[in-house]
Amino acid sequence: MKNPWTWVPTLYFAEGIPYVAVMTIALILYKQLGLSNAEITFYTSWLYLPWVIKPLWSPFVDIIKTKRWWITTMQLLIGAAFGGVAFTIPTSFWLQGTLCFFWLMAFSSATHDIAADGFYMLGLSQHDQTWFVGIRSTFYRLANIFGQGILVMIAGNLQVIFRNSIAYSWSLLFYGCTGMFIALWLWHAYVLPKPAEDRPHDDIKPSVIFQDFLGSIKTFFQKEQVVIGLLFMLFYRMPEGLLAKVSALFLIDAAHNGGLGLSPQEYGFVQGTVGVIGLTLGGIIGGMLASRDGLKKWLWPMVCAITLPDIVYVYLAYDLPSSLSIINVCIFIEQFGYGFGFTAYMLYLIYYSRGAYKTSHYALCTCFMALSMMIPGLFAGALQEFTGYRTFFIIVMALCAVTFLVASLLKINPEFGKKDSE
Question: Which of 66, 176, 306, 331 is the most buried (most CB within 10 A)?
Fold first, then answer.
């Protein structure tokens, strides 16, 4: 068995990069290439779709080929998608071309997630799975910092070097990402172990898989709290669903449009570094407290944490501070609150998934999680353009009442989440 340190960190770093490219870097790219906020949020929100429908094909990843094969193949496809984006940016059909390859990247990334998480359980002993769970999360977060932070900073520096040639600079950046993924593909093709359990299941018929999938869906919607559970999954993050994409555009938009006018280098540091650190710390502290006292005790502090810090964007939109330090503090507070409050959401998905078909039900929960961000994002940019940044952020704050409402409907066992509970 090969040393897990040789492949677990790089595997989850590779898992994080395409996701952040599709969900965040694409926003900055399209903003700099001149698309409106309404167009940007509409087009990029559809890229959530592969994660929404991921359970539809995840069972077939288990029976067709090995998970090792899926991992290396998807990494090669992700590299090709990066190359396709790089190639089409300077062309006259840049919008159609880049969206096409971002779609390829999104589907390949979602499939890579399925295979990587399954391979993690096959390639490690139970003890090592527990030991490396923090390592995999850390390197996934580092991928977020690298993607939102360093890569965006590099794009900004390239624009300085090449005298503000935006398309050429972004093209070079994506060609660099292509090379990085070819290197990751070669590395994992060599270093990933070949566990005996990782084999195609030719003896399992697709019809059996499909029937089992239908059975899991049926029992999912027969749960006792199904209506309340679905309302919580879809609406708990409604304010964040509106805010997530528009906040990034607000940070880089020009001052005459009501934005803060950050350069790519400044944005990379503020959102990609300080913001991700705040998000990570909030998640860690939230997990520690919930594991000590249970989800029920910390539910309302977490509800407040995920909603109330959104007011920093109201302040930023009205004051338009020029101090990078003030902006950093505001983004840290908002992202820390989101990380802390998001803990309640993830724990509830686990709580709802208990019982038969636990794995399948959790996968279905993650579908609704992705849908909860996709739907508000589709019209967030159009709403912002209609109202302006200031009014938009006030609307986001008003909709925090929806989060409080759906949280108030939950019925949670006080013992759930505690260290000594089942």
Answer: 306
